[in-house]
Structure formats: structure tokens, C-alpha cells
Amino acid sequence: MPPHYKLKDTEYSQKYFAKYMREYRKKNPQYVKKDSDKRRDMRKKLLDILGGTKCTHCGFDKDIRVLQIDHKDNEGAEDARSFGGSSKMYRYYVTNPEIAKTKLQVLCANCNIIKQHDEKTWKSPTKGKKRKKGIWY
Ligand SMILES: [Zn+2]
Q1: How many A from CA of 61 to the centre of ligand 1?
Q2: Structural domain of residue 92, as residue ranges?
Q3: Predicted structure pTM score
């Protein structure tokens, strides 16, 4: 009698399936893509759509790792929420490049931070009032 005979059917099939998948992945590494790879691919595709791996603002193109996909209207968080997650949102923009181009742009980390600070100043709820000392500037 095989050693697994005491296991319940579902238990057995789960274990068998996990083992099968492990072996399958080992034998077919070309079909195994990690989530991080998928995200990287998605980002690369989106960067290509938005004009390549170059900061729209200052032209920085030395290192793709600091390039960020920025929402021109700063509605990134709301947008991601409306899609039910940022990966779904990026998938949508990759399949709808025309919409992506109107809503997104490529910025390097520096320009993105500067933009956020500038717009915070611009959108500041204390606009018109005297600003407190010690914020941003
Ligand atoms: Zn830049």
C-alpha cells in the first residue's frame, strides 16, 4: 500500500498537485514567470507607450530604476483604487495606450518629488492663509 493511502482524497490530491507543480516548474522554467517579472514587464511596456525610459521633465535617462509613472493630475491613488489595485490599473493602461498617454507621464524620482512638493504648495489647504514655519521650504 502506498504511504499516502491514509490521507483523505483532497489532502492527497493537494499534495500531489503541489508536487506536480514543483516538478513542472523545474522542468519548464520558461513558463515560470514571477510576479515581479510581470510587474517589471508591465512597467517597461508602459514606459515604452509613454515615450521611453526618459524623464519627461529633465530628460534623465541613465537608470530605469528611478523612473516613475506619474499621474499628470496627481490622482494616482484614487485611480488605482477605482481599478481595484495598481497592477490592474497598469494592465488597463497598457491595453489602452491612447488613454495612458493623456493621463500619465514618465518622471524621474527627483522631478516627481519636486512636482509633489510644488503642487502641495499650490493645492495647499492653507492657501491664502499665512503658512506655518517648517513645512517643506
Ligand atoms: Zn527628471
Answers
A1: 9
A2: 7-120
A3: 0.63
